[in-house]
Amino acid sequence: MLRVNKSIQKLLPGLLLVVGLVACKKDFLEINPKGKLIAEKTADYNLLLNGTSLSTNPLLPQYALGDEVAAVMPHFSGANSILSDEKAFRWEADIYLPSDNTSELTTLMRNVYVYNKIINEVMDSKEGEEAQKQSILAEALGGRAWCYFMLINYYGKPYNAATAATDPGVPKVTVADVTQTKFTRATVKEIYDFIVDDLTRALPYLPAQLTNRIRMSKAAGEALLGKVYVFMGQFDKALIHLDAAVNDLSGASIPVGLYDFQKELSAGGAFTPISPFFGPARTSLYNDQEVLYLRQSLNYYTQYISGVVINAATASLYTAGDFRLQFLSPYPLLVFTETYPRGMLRGWGRGFTNLGAGVPDIYLLRAECKARLNNIAGAVTDMEAFRQKRMPAAEAVIPAAIAADQTALTKFILEERIREFALEGYRWFDMRRLSVDPVYKSTVGSTHIVYNMSGVLQNTYTLKPERLTLRFPLYIINSNPGMEQNP
Predict the structure, then answer these.
(1) Which of 226, 258, 329, 439 makes the best surface tag, with the fewest CB within 10 Å?
(2) SS (HEC) of the chain
């Protein structure tokens, strides 16, 4: 698929290994004939959905792209940094080198291959009940929808109803065929319609009970569809599905819900012990009760690398008692003799970010939808309940002037998303959708600044509208000369 077809053939033995880690059977799958992934029994397709290659993905550029961050030298260079992230921070046209042969596109299309395999074959598999096959099919449809939601938000323009039917998106691949060589880009509208269709087909058959965070449940499917509609600017439709997602949480057989940060950061809490070197203990997402559907990516900027930090404007958004500040440090990694200038802060205590479905995202998107639909009281109630899980009750109250004004309240909710997801990449995707919002496009920043540790400005970079969309990696374009490149 694309140039990725060769990559998939190289991947398959590794995919067998990944699935083998779950199945513990060497003969679970075979590549027969060469270059094809073979599964026969319904149980085989079910185990494919457990592969760690589906739940853990190296999806990285969004962390350095958001307007909530700044960079600090000397940590933002050389061995202390990641070259592609440096280029992303500078909003360069091409963030990968011509010699690079992996990217977000390759990673996600490999996963699409697996989901297509399941979608096209599981209903004809052996030894399974019809209901089980339908459920596996539904999970694969939901997984493919998530992959395409990520792909279109990397490589397609932000959804604009006026232009989506002609804006180029990404290739729409629906078969698991590594021999395909010709691909054209579907439009942004076609891809969003494809995502909505996959999720709509999946919802009636997704497991009603959440039992496993790496598998898609009905609550996760509702959450993803609600988020897709938010990104399409269809807030009335989004609210229906976000409400359904919240309602479905109560049926989970494993702990799911918002953490009370004051409790969990206190002695004996889920985020303890708190290390003086690495911060709170929230480094594993597999048992994190705020994870609804785990699609995690390593995030160097919430633990390991000191060069990208929240900027002074972002730091000023937090009140003094906000417990989320305990996941931010004034010191570079393992350096305690000097602090970041201008009040800037580094992430610590995590290490992975969930890009799938999460409880905080659901609640904040729902509050945003209510505010946009002029249900001010409902939005305020949701927001204050959420904030009480993140800070002392007195600080959780929304100021009266903001709570009484639709536009001010919506902006406050958007700022809450920055506070909640700082350094986790969510802001980049919010920037994209807000950039085409006639009311809130002014909330999108367009400047990245590099400072030294004395706070002296070193460089300034300006976001151009075309860089709200990533260019396809050069190795993809060079191997697929018919593919239209982004500006």
Answers:
(1) 439
(2) CCCHHHHHHHHHHHHHHHHHHHHCCCCCCECCCCCCCECCEHHHHHHHCCCHHHHECCCCCHHHHCCCEEEEECCCCHHHCCHHHHHHHCCCCCCCCCCCCCCHHHHHHHHHHHHHHHHHHHHHCECCCHHHHHHHHHHHHHHHHHHHHHHHHHHCCCCCCCCCCCCEEEECCCCCCCCCCCCCEEEHHHHHHHHHHHHHHHHHHCCCCCCCCCCCCHHHHHHHHHHHHHHCCCHHHHHHHHHHHHHHHHHCCCCCCCCCHHHHCCCCCCCCCCECCCECCCCCCCCCCCEEECCEEECHHHCCCCCEEECHHHHCCCCCCCHHHHHEECCCCCCCCCCCHHHCEEECCCCEEECCEEHHHHHHHHHHHHHHCCCHHHHHHHHHHHHCCCCCHHHHCCCHHHHCCHHHHHHHHHHHHHHHHCCCCHHHHHHHHHCCCCCCHHHCCCEEEEEECCCCEEEEEECCHHHHCCCCCHHHHHHCCCCCCCC
